[in-house]
Amino acid sequence: MLSYENRPAMARSTPTTSDLLPLSPSASNLTNGSSLTNGHTTKSNQPETTHHHIWLITGPAGCGKSTVAQFIAKTMNLPYIEGDEYHPAANVDKMAKGIPLSDADRWDWLTNLREESIRKIQAGAQGVVLTCSALKRKYRDVIRVAPYYSHDVLVHFVYLHAPEEVLIARVGARKGHYMGANMVHSQCMILEPPGKEETDVITVDVSASIDEVEAEALAKMREAIKRELIRDS
């Protein structure tokens, strides 16, 4: 399984609001919303297509969204948005007390994530990597409508999943994170796994090692781009 101990610590401090496992040094210099190499903005390694892409890394707490997302963003040289950092203080306070968020708590947050993703693309990014739990179909749909606001955008979901007991163990091992293990159970209770009709979803089982998970996620994302290139040729 993914481990909190089997990867080197990041070179920079990490926000307490991220679903983060320790990363390899290759991803340690990634800054939120940036795509940097040696301090300079670099060209995207995402194969260029006629579309821009929002890659939403999703799943319940403990699945390693931030770890996988930072790896993907670093590998593809795409801007990275840590969704938890966009929660208003009231949402963070509720979750820290073990109070599940309501739909009303989430709408503005989800809309802000969609708009921020579009802003980065309109600023010149080929794509963006975003983390967000997006536990229900209707939450995913808030991001899914991004093409209505920017017609050359395609949205992809990378759904990370594992048994609840695995996620609880990972969250319980965290230090200084507002999300308690009890919140994992509440998230799993309301989770609506993507159905077959959600054809824009890539599914990755995160019970394997972090290296295997990262490699599988990246390979499936590249395959999605390959299918797009074939379709558009």
Description:
- The chain is of the alpha/beta class.
- Helices cover 40% and strands 14% of the residues.
- It has eight helices and seven strands.
- It has helices at residues 65-76, 89-96, 103-122, 137-144, 146-149, 164-172, 181-190, 210-232, and strands spanning 36-37, 40-41, 52-58, 80-82, 127-131, 153-161, 201-205.
- The chain has a five-stranded parallel sheet, sandwiched between helices.
- The longest helix has 23 residues, at 210-232.
- It is globular, with a radius of gyration of 17 Å.
- 39% of the residues are buried.
Write the layout of secondary structure elements.
Layout: E1 36-37, E2 40-41, E3 52-58, H1 65-76, E4 80-82, H2 89-96, H3 103-122, E5 127-131, H4 137-144, H5 146-149, E6 153-161, H6 164-172, H7 181-190, E7 201-205, H8 210-232
Parallel strand pairs: 3-5, 3-6, 4-5, 6-7
Antiparallel strand pairs: 1-2
Helix pairs in contact: 6-7
Observed structural traits:
single chain, 233 residues, alpha/beta, five-stranded parallel sheet, two-stranded antiparallel ribbon, 8 helices, globular
Quick synopsis:
The chain has 233 residues and is an alpha/beta fold.
User: How far is the first residue's CA from the last residue's CA?
Assistant: 39 Å
SSE class: alpha/beta
What fraction strand? 5-15%
What string, H for helix and E for strand, traces the elements in order? EEEHEHHEHHEHHEH
Main sheet characteristics: 5 strands, parallel
Helix content: 40-55%
How confident is the prediction overall: mean pLDDT? 81
Low-confidence stretches: 1-42
Number of helices: 8
Shape: globular
Strand order of the largest sheet: 4-5-3-6-7
Extended strand count: 7
Could you tell me the radius of gyration in angstroms? Answer: 17 Å
